[in-house]
Structures are given as structure tokens and as C-alpha cells.
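Progress report, Aim 2. The chain analyzed during this reporting quarter is listed below.
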Amino acid sequence: MIDLIGYGAFFLTTALIFSLVTLGLNLQWGLTGLFNVGLAGFVAIGAYTSALLTTPDDPARLGGFGLPILVGWAGAMTVGGLAAALTGIATLRLRSDYLAITTFGVAVVVQLVALNAQKLTGGPFGVGFIPRPFGSLAETPLLFNLSNLAIVSAVALITYLALEHLSRSPWGRVLKALREDERAAISLGKSARFYRIQAFAVGGAIMALAGALQAHFTGFIAPDNYLPILTFQVWVMLIVGGSGSNLGAAIGSILVWAIWAGSGTLTSVLFAPEQQARAASLQIVAIGVMLCIILLVRPNGLFGDRPRRARPGKGAEIATTKSRPGP
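Predicted C-alpha cells for the chain:
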């Protein structure tokens, strides 16, 4: 029973870290309409920044300043936000698929730098000895996992409430207006480029914070943690939960991660060890099937905005008006 509780805390901690990335993506896409498929790069930037700031001195690479964990998290958000703002300045003139291709290229560049800049990132060997919150409790897995769950839950709740407030604020209403009708928003004196860069930077900072949390939770990071499959997972989480809904982003993250982890456990039980490498692809199949089912039943996701329908009386009146011949 104790082991089950400990695993449940570990599972929820990982799912909530994913929910932070999904919340950042929801701000960029669900609220503003910015098609970002390079989010793995911003997660990596946050993870490596916090790791370099907080790890002990290592003669094999730069960094290793041994700063407190909170300083590492703040540095991760700052660097991630600046990187996203610079990316936005360079790319947000593009639209839809062109923006997607460019942001994907940014993520690939970040992953290649992490893989090859060995003096800075440790190269393919990654960065180890990252300080972990409540590291003294590591010998007691249950207490360690519950303590980390409490920290990640607090950060996720604060981020969720902040984004809910922002989405209802005048700033959030401008972002929604730009998403729905850019020309109308510009005609009211709003700078589309300025607001989009702000949204992209805030979303990137949240993704970087998630990367920092994940780095300190596991105590080790490597370039293989930030492959395009991460982007695929987070986009599925947002689509399943409902684009434009912060609650949907959080619930979708937990649901999709449960299916991902559960399918991985199931394949390890059903298949022999020599076949498990091939059977791992069934995780993507399981996610794809679930995504198809949800989109058929709920095209806007579990918590997405439902399309407004006119009342029967009003609809009939409008239809009658339209059917009348002109004078």
C-alpha cells in the first residue's frame, strides 16, 4: 500500500509538470492562436539553465555555481522568457504552418546545442548531481515523493490561478480579440505584434519553469529528454483537454500521461523483454486511438468552448427574415 501511494505521488508529480508545459502552450495557442511546435526547446532551456546555476562546481564544464534551487527556477524563467521573446521577434510575422516550421527548427537547434556543447551542457552525457528539493528524504521514497508532489502542486496551482486571472483581464481579452479577428483589434489601436510577443514570452517562461522543475525532480538531464516526442505529447494533452481552457490543459495532461504510463506498463507485462523495444510504439498507437475517439465525441476537447447555438425561436426568426424576398 505504501509503495502504491509513493508511485501515485510520483505519477501526479510528473503529470503536473506536464500540465505546466501544457498551460504555457494553451496561453500561446488556445488564447492567442500562435502555432508553436518548438516547445521542447524552451523546456530544455529551462532545465539546463537551472541545472547550471544550482549544481556544484565541475571542472569538466562551465557553470556549476551552486546557487539555491529557487534562484535556479527564477533564472530558468528569465532565460526561457527572453529566448521565447527573441524567437517571437524573429518569427511572429509568419503565420500558421510557417511559424510551426520555424519554431520546430528552434527546438532542433536547442537540442543539437545541448548534444554537442559538451563544455556547457555535458553533451550526450548530460548534467548530473542536480540538487533535489528535500534531497535528505531520498532514502524514504514515500516522504520524498509526497514532498515533491506538494511543491509541484503549489507551483502548478499558482500558475493556473495566475493564467486564469490573466485570461479574464484586459490583456487576455486583447489576446482573444487578436485570435478571433486581428483587423478588428488593430482598428481599436492594439499592436498585434507587441501583444503576441508578450504572450509568446510568458508561455516560454512557463515552459522553462516546467523544465527546471523536472530537472530538480529527477536530478539528471540529458538531450534525449527533449526530443520531438515531448512536443507531440503536450499537443495531445492540450487537444484532449480542450484548447483555450486552462482547466482542460491540466486535466488533459493528467489523462494523457495516465494512458501513456499505463500503456508502457502494460507492454512490459504482455511482451517478452526482447520484444519490448518494438512494443513501445504501441504507446503512440494508444494515444492516437484515444485522440481520435475524443475528437469524434468532443471535437473541442473535454473542456473546450462549445459552439454557441441560437435559440429555436431566434433561429426560426432569423431564417424567416433571410428567406423573405427583397423589396
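The radius of gyration is 22 Å. Residues 2-224 form one domain. These observations will guide the mutagenesis work planned for the next reporting period.
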